[in-house]
Amino acid sequence: MAEFQTHKNDITKTRLVDVGNQPDDFTLADGEILVKVERFSFTANNVTYGAVGEQIGYWQFFPPHLTDGDDADWGIVPVWGFAEIVASNNPDMKIGERSYGYFPMANFLKMLPVRVSDERFVDGAPHRAELPAVYNSYDRLGAGQPQNDNLRALLNPLYGTSFCLCDALQEENYRDAEQVVILSASSKTAIGLAFGLSQIDGARPAIIGLTSPANVGFVEKTGSYDTVIGYDDLDAVPNISSVLVDMSGNRAVLGAVHGALGDNMHWCHNVGLTHWDDSETKNDPAAAQLIAERSAMFFAPGHIARRAKEWGALDFSQKVAGFLADGMAHAGGWLDVHETQGLEAFRPMPKCRYSSVGRASDL
Fold first, then answer.
1. What pLDDT is stored for residue 353 in this prediction?
2. Mean pLDDT across 138-148
3. Domains and CATH numbers, the chain
4. What is the pLDDT of residues 190-249, one digit of tens each?
5. Which residues contact 138 (CB under 8 A, 6 or more apart)?
6. Where are the beta strands (DSSP E) in 212-291?
7. What is the pTM of this model?
8. Cα distance between residue 101 and residue 23, in whole Å
9. Distance CA 242, CA 208 (A)
């Protein structure tokens, strides 16, 4: 099995580790299955998993195989995608069945399905027991190849976060803001959020997108934002009551926006790290203007768990499914999918300004 391993302290440092290449190379315990990862998406979302993996626990999902003399500084970045059962020691799970969910960047994965229903199962591997439930649940797809695998792999996890952000902003009445300012407006999660907000009936704040000057035209063409402004023109951001949603992690840009808005910056949801390598900008004088007491990380799994409890899991899933269906239809007008083959194609870890789907059948 080839595992794509990433150094936890330097995610540009990667390696491939061979720990078995055929199903017969793996021994299954009672109840376990072996799946072959078919394809997965790779976006800035996955780079974020690596960049904050230690703080939030993303390295814990798929412990890597370490060679003799290795330290514990190697990990596996999780990805969202599809896999097929190639060996089963579980009476409820048949060879040939496909599933969608959270997988490692690897050829194979041993899993322990529990709480199995016709629609889904949970990986009950002991080391995952204390991790967020949303990452341990897998959709059962049966056999065969459904349509829209690429779009689903790319957008499901991102637009799930977009839905949660829309819901949170509405729940908190937009922090009484007149505008929602979204940084890194060209990212897929940002476009999903802006699209969701734009579909709200009735009164809502203005939707302002901030992006690099080169991306202004593209972001405008998505049709999701009321106004799109380049980072080189921050003076154009209206100085009115605002709630910010930051997908970038660029402390210099974010600090400049905080400083410009001042008391009108009511709240900032920190979501992603499209600018994960922020070693230079963190020392920019503008970064000192960040208003930490009115900022916090937005953790979608926590929001999902709360809403699933409040609404019921089925009602929550139906709401998200409707949001995703509309978002995927909208994405057809602006999103191009780039396919790659083989884990080697991901070396070194890219900064990922594009959408990629890895075809694991060739890994």
1. 40
2. 78
3. 2-146+333-362 (3.90.180), 158-301 (3.40.50.720)
4. 999 999 999 998 889 999 999 999 999 999 999 999 999 999 999 999 999 999 999 988
5. 99, 100, 101, 102, 113, 120, 121, 122, 123
6. 227-230, 242-246, 265-270
7. 0.79
8. 20
9. 10
